[in-house]
Amino acid sequence: MRIYGPVPSRRFGLSLGVDIVPHKVCPLDCIYCQLGETDCLQVEREDFYTIEEIISDVKEALEEGPAPDVITLAGSGEPGLYLHLGELIDELKKLSDAPVLLITNAVLLTNPDMAAAALKADILAPSLDAGDVETFERINKPHPDLNFDDIVESLVAVTNAHPGEVRLEVMLIRDINDDRESIEKIAAITKRVKCDRIDINTPVRPPVPERGALPCNEDTLELAKSILGPKAVPIAKFEKRHRSQKQLHEFNDVDKNVRETLMRRPCTLKDICDSHGLDEPTASDIIHRLQAAGLITADHTDQGTYYRVPGQNPTSL
Ligand code: SF4
Q1: What global pTM score does this model have?
Q2: What's the fold here for domain 245-308?
């Protein structure tokens, strides 16, 4: 089990990430997954770690600070696979005022225990990438026991029963689900889902292009926004969260923070500047120091140069 951060998240601010499922155990094998291919395609839920050890690690991270905006259950696999998820969320809520955020691919909401656990999360962030079973199979490559129609009905039921914030994410992939007809099929479902916001995303970071998941263009994001309605917001770019270097120095070494961010996901120089409130020369110096020490590497792609920690698993957060 690993605790990340707090690190800046594109969608939820400063996030203390809690991995409760080992890499990479998931009921899906999404072609856009930044964690790479799924090692263990499974739908059986289990306790990969004890609640006591998770709580102890989170407590320690909270004591070290800085205070996160959210405590996020996500990371190296699908958190819905954690058997005692509901009890874990209850315990996490006792630790701080930070809301508990559950990021989930939603496919296990068909399980009544998982559905009950999802209702306990202060913020529920499910995904929906397809409006029909063919697209679901093409993009998400599900475990054979999963049934698309059942998943949709469970998603509708759980979100309508959820007492808190629900943030749906829709990932658009070029030439697969970014045409008008595909988006309209997704919209037919999102109209029935109760949510506060729909984040429209597209896979802009490596290693996605190598798996055939290409980003759609900006016009398509606008088209999707017009079809999905007023709650829909394109989020393909990092939302700036300016924090001064002085603040970061108060809590952490900046180099360590940048490296920690790169452990979560590959970033461009601009991403690092935006997420850590650094100017470009300062961020470049940090990159050069980390590269010289062999702690990070650079991937040169059509979308730009992305820095990453070798051997680590970037996240979809
Ligand atoms: S993107 Fe999420 S749901 Fe899809 S394979 Fe990766 S971890 Fe699983």
Answers
A1: 0.77
A2: Arc Repressor Mutant, subunit A (1.10.10)
